[in-house]
Design brief:
alpha/beta; Carbamate kinase; 8-stranded mixed β-sheet; 4-stranded mixed β-sheet; 7 helices
């Protein structure tokens, strides 16, 4: 299962229309006008381009959004900046995952390519950060591996220095580091943390610019980026309050969920 972002394409279209490009705590401030652009660019351009590329080599991919078949139900999300909650518009957090459509596609040998747009119980359409959507899907599918492909080698140990990458984090250590992060890395690490706390075996940040990065990450060879794993068994569980739930019956775990993102959607 693959999800995707589209930040650069959204930014370019917003600039053409003279609309502001604003981020708070790594999340896009999404006005109703911005939401129209997000929906159009992600579902109508980026998704179609990626489906075309995947279908050139197979297995065949099918593009869907979180609105389709009620795949992703969302609720309004507030950003946290310096300890305070900030309204960032029509940004959503996944509250429920219905995996039936994904199971139907994968059981048919097709690759679902999911766009992070979801509808709330209030009828409102929300912009869902691609990494957050991937974490929710991984949890809903009970995947054993979440991979986030991005445009940096991993989590830097001493930002802004770039000479050392943190290769391994437990969930507890990731939670400790999360408040110290800013920019796009914050939602990425948060998504990894949510995934492993919801039962995913491993979450990994990889540099998608490196040839065969996904293969190396899955095999543990070469470039492996930053991995987040569950705490040891003797560590008390600390589940997030808004862990997603899958409405499908128990199934064997999926192998992996992958998201590709450089700049936030």
């Amino acid at each position: 299962v693959v999800t995707h972002g589209g930040g650069p394409q959204i930014n370019a279209h917003l600039e053409k229309l003279g609309l502001p490009v604003t981020f708070t705590a790594g999340l896009r401030v999404t006005t109703p006008e911005t939401m129209d652009v997000v929906r159009m660019v992600l579902a109508g351009q980026v998704q179609r381009d990626l489906v075309g590329l995947l279908n050139e080599d197979g297995p065949l991919a099918v593009g869907i959004t979180g609105e389709d078949a009620r795949l992703l139900t969302a609720a309004k999300r507030l950003a946290v900046l310096d300890g305070d909650e900030v309204d960032i518009g029509l940004v959503g957090d996944v509250t429920r995952v219905d995996t039936h459509v994904l199971r139907a596609l994968t059981d048919s040998g097709l690759v679902p390519l999911v766009t992070g747009i979801g509808r709330g119980t209030d009828g409102q359409v929300y912009n869902i950060n691609a990494d957050s959507a991937a974490a929710a899907l991984a949890a809903g599918l009970r995947a054993d591996h979440l991979v986030i492909l991005t445009d940096v080698p991993g989590l830097y140990a001493d930002w802004p220095r770039r000479d050392q990458i943190v290769e391994h984090l437990t969930a507890t250590r990731a939670a400790e580091l999360l408040p110290t992060l800013s920019g796009g890395m914050a939602p990425k690490l948060e998504s990894c943390l949510r995934a492993v706390r919801a039962g995913v075996g491993r979450a990994q940040l990889l540099d998608g610019r490196v040839p065969h990065a996904l293969l190396h990450g899955c095999l543990g060879t070469g470039h492996t980026g930053t991995s987040v794993v569950p705490d040891p068994p003797d560590t008390p569980p600390n589940h997030l309050e808004d862990d997603t739930c899958a409405s499908s019956p128990p199934r064997p775990p999926a192998s992996s969920v992958c998201t590709t993102s450089g700049s936030g959607s």
